[in-house]
Amino acid sequence: MVSIRSLTTILAYAIALCGLLPLFPWLTNAPRIILVLGFLAGIWQDRRGNWPLKPWMQNSAIVPVFIYYLLQYSRSNPVQPVVSVLAIMLAVRLCGEKTARYSLQIHALSLFCLASSSLFDLSPMFLLYLGLLLFLVAIALVLITFYNQDSSICLSMADLRKVVAAALLMPLLSLPLMVFFFPLLPRTQLPLWNYLSSTPGITSGLSDKVEPGIESSIGESGILAFRAEMLNQHRQLYWRGTVFNQMEGNRWIRDRAPHFENPVFTGQTIAQSIYPEPTSSKILIALDRPVSITIKFLKRAPDGVFEYMGSSRKRLSYTAVSAVGGVVASGSSIDRSFYLRLPAAIPARIQQLAADIRRRGRDDLGRLELLESHFRNGGYTYSTRGLPTGEHALEKFLFETKRGHCEFFASSFATLLRSSGVPCRLVGGYLGGEYNELGGYYLVTENMAHVWVEAYIDGRGWLRIDPSSFAENAGNVFAADKSRNLMFRLRLAIDSMNHAWNRTVIPYDFERQIDFVNYVGNRFQGIHPAKTIGSIATYLAVIALFLGLLFAARRKRLLFRSREERILRSFLRRAELDFGIDGGGERRIGLFEIAKESGSEKMMEFVNIYAGAVYRDRRLTDEEYRLLKQIIRDSFVSPSK
User: Fold this and answer.
1) What's the rounded Cα separation, in Å, for the pair 94 and 20?
2) What is the rounded CA–CA span in Å between residue 446 and residue 450?
3) What is the mean pLDDT of residues 528-550?
4) Is the pLDDT reported for residue 272 higher than 70?
């Protein structure tokens, strides 16, 4: 037996967890601490069966909290105060006794907290938590109905199963309505907070400038940047974003791109479907180097940079075709002076090294090879910690510390190339990706943001060079193969669910609603009754056969009776014929009573054999069955009568 009071209390905590877990990561520290304390205090009091915190105390405690967050409310900060108040109200309510009234308040506040989490994140986990919460609330409502009548009621396990079945039926009955309303009701493509906030989306790992020497260490973020559907390439991939073509001090920026460049693409091409995460950047990512990108409102630069000029208030998806050879020929000459510009204040040691390379190299390709050799044999290591800083950070990296990340390697390499007379530019994008075999796409995160160099060589075109790959520890840092343990595979499986959610549910906007209505209308206009009935006749026959089999399965006790049932029916018919006793009618008397009333020894013999088997929960043996049939054939009436 299970107490209804205990069940409603446990369900109150479970429902609160369903509402708070999705919201918890987005709360500030104060509401988080109050929530934990509220849970612990509530559990402690419920176990003791004593609630010193009275309702009037709880209501009084909420008032100053409400005033405090009301003063923080502003147009620039409308969401955080509201969700903080909701979370704290739920924590305070959990501290008190779980009466029917307060349990309903906990359910409502939990639902509001769960709905508030959609302001920050629209993932399939929200739907999972919502389904679980509704199911638990349905059970709780059934139990509260009994609890409100008598709080001391206890349920057996059989009764509890009935309650769960009844509660499960309520959300199941709503599924047809959900299916009906799904194509009718719109949904936002980004969390609502992105519409209210002045800074939509996330900040991508791809920056609008390259400036080594700002920080002595670089933090890595595993936030998703984009997904790319394509076949597994089994090689290291470079994803092109933007180009930095001018240097100002230590900073590389993107200036205008010369319009007369004419790239010529040859070799293998790979198609991709790209699904970037919401971001304020308008740069479109694709495999290096993209030949074409298919999307509306596209701006294309001749140096391989594509920008989306439409609204950033929706999730994007586009297709790209890329030539992945790492070399792009040019159908015309380039503006060499543009790609050789340098600031006036280049440190003397850098100029001296560049002059030595220029003197020893016979042409641009020879100078490029000399510079590659210098980096390969110079003892440089890749690191995101202990980085040189300040105005002379590049000089310190090249000649002193020899420790740096991709921005140091690419910036110093490009500076030396230009100083030695070789046209070049920096390319910003991403390196690598984790392939999700379940979803058939690459998963690229912000910590994979990368910078490399493109050098122009007469007769060949633009060559991709990754100076970071010349580091002594590059093999360990950029290893493509990672351990695909169980947790890693589980993470990829969950991400494939997120990807499917973002592809199907989230992008369903007003435009798709119109397409759906037009599709349904066209389908109805093309319906011909005679042809339709003929085309579905086979399906109707299959459905009818299935229903018939289902009916037969449910009625098999009538269609295929056991021999115990058949012999019993024969016994009752014979008793009625020989003695006029209707044992199966309104009287409903037992077998021994029938035999006693008839006074027949044969009938009593039948009953003893039959009851000796069936009443002891076993089947009749073949010998017993044959003997009973023989008794019925011989008649129950003795010859003396």
Assistant:
1) 12
2) 9
3) 70
4) yes
pLDDT of residue 428: 95
- Residues 426-452 have a mean pLDDT of 92
Among positive and negative, which fits the CA dihedral 189, 194, 200, 205?
negative
Phi, psi of 129 (to 5 degrees): -65, -40
- Let me know: does 133 contact 114? Beta carbons within 8 Å: yes
pLDDT in the model for residue 119? 78
Give the count of beta carbons closer than 10 Å to the beta carbon of residue 449: 23
pLDDT at 516 over 70: no
Strand partners, 134: none
Residue 344 tokens, joined:
């006036």
Handedness of CA 554, 559, 564, 569 (dihedral sign): positive
Pairing relationship of beta strands 306-308 and 434-436 according to DSSP bridges: unpaired
Alpha-carbon gap, residue 237 to 518, rounded angstroms = 41
Q: Three-state SS for 488?
A: helix
**Which residue's entry shows tokens 């600031």?**
343
Bigger pLDDT: 243 or 153?
243
Quick one: average pLDDT of 462-482?
86
Residue reference for tokens 């009844």: 166
Whole-number Å distance between alpha carbons of 420 and 422: 6
Which one, of 415, 451, 89, lies nearest residue 238 by Cα?
A: 451
Q: How far is CA 417 from CA 252, 397, 458, 606, in A?
A: 14, 16, 15, 110
Query: Average pLDDT over the chain, rounded to whole?
Result: 83
Q: What is the pLDDT of residue 243?
A: 95
- Cβ-proximal residues to 204 (8 Å cutoff; 6+ apart), any chain: 225, 277, 279, 280, 281, 446, 449
* 578-620 confidence digits (pLDDT tens): 888 876 655 567 888 888 888 888 888 888 998 888 887 788 8
**pLDDT confidence of residue 203:** 40
- With a pLDDT cut of 70, the percent of the chain lying above it is 84
pTM above 0.70?
no
Across the beta sheet with 461-465, what order do the strands follow? 263-264, 327-330, 461-465, 449-457, 424-431, 238-244, 286-287
- b/e per residue 83-117 (b: at least 16 CB within 10 A): bbbbbbbbbbbbbbbbbbebbbebbebbbbbbbbb
- DSSP type of residue 381: E
Q: 3-class SS at 578?
A: helix
φ, ψ at 9 (rounded to 5°): -65, -45
